[in-house]
Design a protein that fits this description.
single chain, about 220 residues, alpha+beta, eight-stranded mixed β-sheet, two-stranded antiparallel ribbon, 5 helices, 14 strands, about 25% strand, globular
Amino acid sequence: MATQAIETRYAGCRFRSRLEARWAVFFDTLNIAWEYEPQGVQVSWRLSLREGTFQYLPDFWLPEWKLWVEVKGSLTTTECVRLLNAAAHLSSNGGGGCHDNGGHDLLILGPVPRPTNDGTEWMPIRLHMHKGLLEPIPWPGESGCSSRLLYKMGLFYNGVASDVGGELEIFNGESSKRVITVLLEGVPYPVRSRSMYAHALEAARSARFEHGETGHHGRL
């Protein structure tokens, strides 16, 4: 059973959920500029090969990173298909290439991960459309059209969805459950300096918003 979202005020915004507010704390702690629900966009059912469009409202826009952000505490298979279609459209701006026509990737943020003790951190996934292939890439660990780390882990050799040559494949042979798990949990990624990232995650986890408090604001 899904947990009911709790509206939360933080940094002058009324977030639809406590989880969204926690990720805003994370961004602030890392001094990452953000905009909350800046605009809705019409996106295509590109990966489902359906006619028409649907309205999609990303949770955040990160202007310095040129990234859209979607925060999800859980995902059904139907919601995931909708999300993958939106990511494909946003990343390629409806075209077929890599960042063609000014497209921007979609970062997926699930529940705030717990700390690790093995020299890695759980990195969230950004979805990048490259010539018909929707690739999951650890953020901010890797960039460009390569998810080498995921390949080494035996994950998503063919991305999470594609429309190469007009052939549609959502989940590309992976189970929907596995795709959803990776999107929500991220992947363990070796980090050189754990302090800033780990501190930001801890700030997000420990932020208190009850009784009118506004939580920790990283820019103060």
